[in-house]
Amino acid sequence: MTGRPAQRHPVDPHGDPLTFAVSGLMAEPPGTVRDYDIERVDVDPGEGLRLTEPVTGTLRLSRTNRGLLVDARVHTALAGECARCLRPVVTPVNARIREEVLPTIDLASGLAVPLEEGGDPEAPRLTDHHELELRPLVAEAISLQEPIAPLCEPDCPGLCPECGQRLDPGHVHDDAPIDPRLEALRAFRFDGDDESG
Length: 197
Fold this sequence. Notes:
By secondary structure, the protein is mainly beta. Helix content is about 5%, strand content about 30%.
């Protein structure tokens, strides 16, 4: 590998912008590098998640002695709701993907490449047409960034247990009607003596 900066390669404008034809790179010696830009690609992260902006980022493919090392950095944002007050929340996502992707078909012979002994059958593989399908790796990387309990602000006060409204500064009830979804809670009573045992 030379000391020259890697040339940026264009994405096929007619296909999936996250599918890369890599037969040429697979024919190169180990250490060969190709760089790509990921520009405003729509991705479905699955599992009920929703993005608020397209995915952007960079991709570097490096030829290894077995396949390709994928090194991608992607940026987007996830839609959600605050875990305390249920207001809409947007969570920025900056994810990195580092995976070695192995060939399915030997480039020289055209024969299937068998799984190495002890190899992971779930490891990512190139397609039969020597293409890298990056989309599932991007979707998985984004889904792993989903926050467990996102907050609209670090000190979100949450909801009033009586009326169900957000506990903003100066929150008062003034005999406001109770949120109908919380009406059933009126029937619950807590008797501290029963807990003494």
